Amino acid sequence: MRPPSAARPINSPRSDLDDALNTRLSILCAEGWDIWDRFSSGVRQHSFHPFVAADYDAVLEALLPHRGPGLRFLEWGSASGVITIMADLLGFEAFGIELDTDLVRTARALAIKSGSKARFAAGSFLPSGYSWRPSGGDGRTGTLGHGASGYLQLEHPLDEFDVIFAFPWPGEEPMMLDLMRCFGRSDARLLLNTVTEGIQTYQGGRLIAPPDATESASTTML
Ligand SMILES: C[S@@+](CC[C@H](N)C(=O)[O-])C[C@H]1O[C@@H](n2cnc3c(N)ncnc32)[C@H](O)[C@@H]1O
Predict the structure, then answer these.
(1) CA 88 to ligand 1 center in whole angstroms
(2) Which of 46, 74, 126, 207 is 20 to 30 A from 155, alpha carbon to alpha carbon?
């Protein structure tokens, strides 16, 4: 299996965001890349770890059309927390679940440093009792690990989230779609950062075109 590749951000300020927010996002992404560099040389150099950082600039672009007042965001496998914190800075009520407790500590520290209210649970984003039973019969979950479910810590079940983001390794997408079908809301949007097709948006199990960013920006409180 080919690992997702980490890409560097362009970090150019966006004309549709105010200067203060552009600055906070750019500092956040720079911190995120420093964390990734240290993680890459300190941990991934020695043994396999499923954390690979997404292209933060592309994720920002993908999140913008989904903003709206009072929306709740969840990142499955939130690693260093950059994307969950980004969602908080964009106005979502933002939460992340991550299995690796060291990464959860890193994410919480980054949230404090970034002046963000993003919250992180140490645990699995697989709800208790879930098991992956594909029609082909191969229920292996790829790089996805198992542990106590993180939703109790967040105090919100999966069906209370409006926007969910994940960066699956190739082949893990069908299980994530199944998870939404079993436990998510049918009107929630699932943003999957795929290695081959970029960030794809699903709603009710179907691939959809993301809403127009300018329309959603006019309805946000930012
Ligand atoms: C490819 S990385 C994505 C990191 C981050 N979302 C990003 O896009 O930059 C996948 C992350 O999921 C975590 N993970 C794997 N299985 C998990 C599970 N069952 N529950 C929560 N996190 C999990 C891994 O530890 C890893 O940090």
Answers:
(1) 19
(2) 207
Length of the chain: 222
* CATH class of segment(s) 19-219: alpha beta
Burial class (CB in 10 A: 0-12, 13-18, 19+), 80: buried
**Separation of CA 66 from chain center:** 13
- CA distances (Å), origin 4, targets 8, 48, 194: 13, 13, 8
- Ligand 1: centre distance to CA 21 (Å): 26
- Ligand 1 atom index nearest CA of 169: 1
Enumerate the domain spans of the chain: 19-219
Task: Quote the pTM value.
Answer: 0.92
Q: What is the mean pLDDT of residues 167-174?
A: 92
Whole-angstrom distance, CA of residue 189 vs CA of residue 192:
10
